[in-house]
Amino acid sequence: MASESGTESGSLLIDGIQLLVPQPCFDKFFVEFNFFYVPCLKLVLSKGLGYAIILGSMLVKIPQIVKLVQAKSGEGISMSGIVLELVAISANTAYGFGHSFPFSTYGEGLFLAFQTSLVGLLVLVFGGNAIGGIGFMVIYSAIMAFLMSPLTPMALLATLQSLTIVMILLSKSIQGLANYRNGSTGQLSAITVFLLFFGAIARIFTSMQETGDSLVIATYVASTIANGCLATQMLYYWNADKPHIKKE
Length: 248
What we know:
- The chain is mainly α.
- It has 11 helices and no strands.
- The radius of gyration is 21 Å and the shape is globular.
């Protein structure tokens, strides 16, 4: 029994290591002891970054959610921008899932989709439209379930992924324009904006290493540019008091 337990534990440990060091790199490192094989070093770095992004994505929009709840207001946050961002996240996640890409390349989309939809719900609820918020969550959940199901044609996923670049740029542009008009970033969370920016940069590298898919790579390039613009606004409006500055 003890030997069986030890064998099982060893097998679990090997499986865990292979999440970060898949074959044939596992053999390169731990059988041939070739720890400086560059292609495998790049792959392991990509895997590590990918899983770190996924772990970070579980919390990336929590500061935004907390800020909304504390203020009991969605002031300064564009609902149309949220919807476009949510469509982009969902399309990108469904595309990666449908193409059986490694989970480390798209897994954060599941957590970002949930948190972004929750932000949308709070904006609607605090805007006095609780019924609309519930309807929004129900409709979105149904759409996401369809996109992740075998019923969705791959051609549709490819089309949505192509449109994702436009949706990302448009959604962030809408939010950026709202910031400019308000002379403030309102209830936007600086932590969330900067985490999304740096996460998008890292995703360019992981997508190049693990998928080689030009659509996915272009999506994260667009996301980096768009989130970088919002991050720049965050710095520019850092000390701006919200709407009353304009009134004065």
